[in-house]
Structures are given as C-alpha cells and as structure tokens.
Amino acid sequence: MDTVTSAISPSMQAICRLDDIPDGGAMAVEVMLAHGEDSVILMRQGSQVQCYLNICPHAGRQLDYAPGKFLLQDQTLICAVHGASFNKTDGLCIAGPCKGDSLRSVVVRMQGDEIFLA
Known about the structure:
Shape: globular
Order of helices and strands: EEEEEEEEEE
Largest sheet: 4 strands, antiparallel
CATH architecture: 3-layer Sandwich
Oligomer: single chain
Radius of gyration: 14 Å
Low-confidence stretches: 1-10
Helix content: under 10%
CATH superfamily: Rieske [2Fe-2S] iron-sulphur domain
C-alpha cells in the first residue's frame, strides 16, 4: 500500500518521521490501534512507505529476529521464526509455511516528512 498524502486530522497519531526509517530498510513502532497497542512494521523505499502489523500469518508471532530488527533481502521481508517470505510492496507471502497469505496492512498517511497512523 502506498503512503497517502492528505490533510491530517488532530486525532491522527504521529508514528515517526520518514528519515527515521532507513531507505530500503524497515523499523518497528508500537502504536495504539482500535483493539489496543500493537507493533507495526514500517518499510521504506525512497518516499514510499508500507506499513503492516508485525504479526506473521503462519503462527501469529512477530517477524523481527530482535526488537525492531528484520531480515530483508532484495524486495522481501523474511519471518525470523519460520522463514516465510513476504513481498515488501504488498505483504503477500511468496514462500514458506503461509504461502498465499498476506501480512495485515495498516494505513498510514504522510504530511511533509511526518508519518501518521490513519
């Protein structure tokens, strides 16, 4: 999912700044979602940011191998627990135990260089 640029309402939650995410890399952030606090993965490619829940659809575990540290290879995010491989651009699992499933997308919006949870 592409980052959407639009007017930000005062109730939107600021997550981070674009420069906080390494270009071509990923980071985890704790956010407050409708069901409570959760970890999300923010992945950046240039000015584009994708955001997903930090939960593997295979076993419900977080994808990072250490807090906020992810296995990235080319355009793929790899689950550190069971090796499932997900496209960075759409979250689709292309290899591993949950092939065909997808990461759950989280909508974010960008204003200037600030990223907000929509």
